[in-house]
Amino acid sequence: MDFLRVIREVCGALDAAGVRYALIGGFAMALRGVQRATVDLDFILMLDDLSKADAVLRAAGYRREYHSDNVSHYRSAHADLGRLDFLHAFRGPSLSMLARAERIDVAPGLAVPVVQVADIIGLKVQAAVNDPQRADADWLDIRLLLEAGAGLGQPPDWTLIGDYLDLFGLGEEIARLEDWYVQAQRR
Question: How many domains does the structure of the chain reveal?
């Protein structure tokens, strides 16, 4: 997948169509300081904008492979355009996540909205709870995000992280996450 091409072409078209979206997932982690292999692009998208986004994606050569109330998956027949996954924002936490997103430079003259570190962590907590087989990888991603933030002197929004943990009955985990951050600061 040619990530810069997809971001330039697809995100540019989404912007031009007035679609409200932001990057999440592995590429968002990279833009937040954690280099991790990824093979697709993941987004959060305002559900009300799904029909506009669908038109943009179809015009760009993508076809929708899967759709539910919560997610849509698109794939292009062209390998360099790859797969795009969209989480639909329509509930309070996902709407807030989208509202907090900020544009980050991906390349000179190319910026894309990206959710906050605490929101990526919230999505990772949800993924770990929903699929115990991936939980170890998701908790590692959380640790890497916290360590990267510590290394950059950028503390996350601990209150928001606590809210996400509480949402999934994991409030006691905040101490472990804070410890990871503190330990990384000491390095």
Answer: 2
Q: Which residues pair with 46 in a beta bridge?
A: 89
Tens of pLDDT, residue by residue over 26-83, are: 999 999 999 887 789 999 999 999 999 999 999 999 999 999 999 999 999 999 999 9
Residue 148 CA to residue 51 CA, distance in Å, equals 36
Compute the distance between CA of residue 98 and CA of residue 20 in angstroms, rounded to an integer. Answer: 8
Is the separation of the CB atoms in 85 and 97 below 8 Å? no
User: Do 141 and 171 reside in the same domain of the chain?
Assistant: yes
Residue for token pair 């959710």:
115
Per the structure, the complete domain to which residue 54 belongs is given by 3-115
Q: Are 91 and 28 members of one domain?
A: yes
SS3 state of residue 165: helix
